[in-house]
Design brief:
- The complex is a heterodimer.
- Chain A has no helices and 11 strands.
- Chain A is globular and about 40 Å long.
- Chain B is mainly beta.
- Helices cover 0% and strands 50% of the residues of chain B.
- Chain B contains no helices and 11 strands.
- Chain B is globular, with a radius of gyration of 13 Å.
- In chain B, 36% of the residues are buried.
- At the A-B interface, strand 5, strand 9 and strand 10 of A face strand 4, strand 5, strand 9 and strand 10 of B.
């Protein structure tokens, strides 16, 4: 089945630093989604990407859809304490086609910010 | 503008009992998805439903698990004869018809003792 590999698995950074994480797959995805999950909560959608090469920003977050459709990255600029959490990439399963499908998730990147 | 609602937030069951997890999608959303998350893992897709129809249940265990999304009322994920391995966080998500973006509820944390 489809798999998404996220790296790094965890990041320890200082407040104010920029963060970069990525997500790769052996198969093509037509949509990439980035979510953030806080402890005890559900994932919150950060950014959705639909076209190869697309670069999209949401405040201090920027994400890109790789040209090969097999990767995506997420950058966070000038990190702040509330950025702590687990960041997941996800893409629609190809089993039934179309836009509305179950999602395959990566295992996440844990972001820890040291004061 | 209520988001996806799930209840209960926490559920404790003894081995062999039944667990019922409820999900109300966002207003205007007609597609519901259920996922399971084990500690330190990503979310695993279980089932995708529209009103009164199961569209994709490829991630559902073949036994003891069932899901429904009736014409009226919330979607229900039902686990019969729970075992310790069923302990996990179960998340529901909803989307607009044809949309890839899914919006998640806060989850139900099931503990089987």
């Amino acid at each position: 089945g489809q798999q998404l590999n996220q790296s790094p698995q965890s990041m320890f950074i200082q407040e104010g630093e920029d963060v970069s994480m990525n997500c790769t797959s052996s198969s093509i995805f037509n949509t990439w989604l980035w979510y953030k999950q806080d402890p005890g909560e559900g994932p919150v959608l950060l950014i959705a990407l639909y076209k190869a090469g697309e670069l999209t920003s949401n405040g201090r977050l920027t994400a890109q859809f790789g040209i090969t459709r097999k990767d995506s990255f997420l950058n966070i600029s000038a990190s702040i304490p509330s950025d702590v959490g687990i960041y997941f990439c996800a893409g629609p399963n190809l089993s039934s086609g179309g836009g509305a499908d179950g999602l395959t998730f990566g295992k996440g990147t844990h972001l820890i910010i040291q004061p | 503008n209520a988001g996806v609602m799930q209840n209960p937030r926490h559920l404790v069951r003894r081995r062999g009992q039944e667990a019922r997890l409820r999900c109300s999608p966002m207003k205007g959303h007609s597609h519901v998805y259920w996922y399971r998350q084990l500690p330190e893992e990503g979310l695993k897709f279980m089932v995708y439903l529209q009103k009164e129809n199961i569209i994709d249940e490829s991630g559902m265990p073949k036994e003891r698990f069932s899901a429904e999304f009736p014409k009226e009322g919330p979607s229900i994920l039902r686990i019969q004869q729970v075992v310790r391995g069923d302990s996990a966080a179960y998340f529901c998500a909803s989307s607009l018809q044809g949309a890839a973006e899914q919006y998640f509820g806060p989850g139900t944390r099931l503990t089987v003792t």
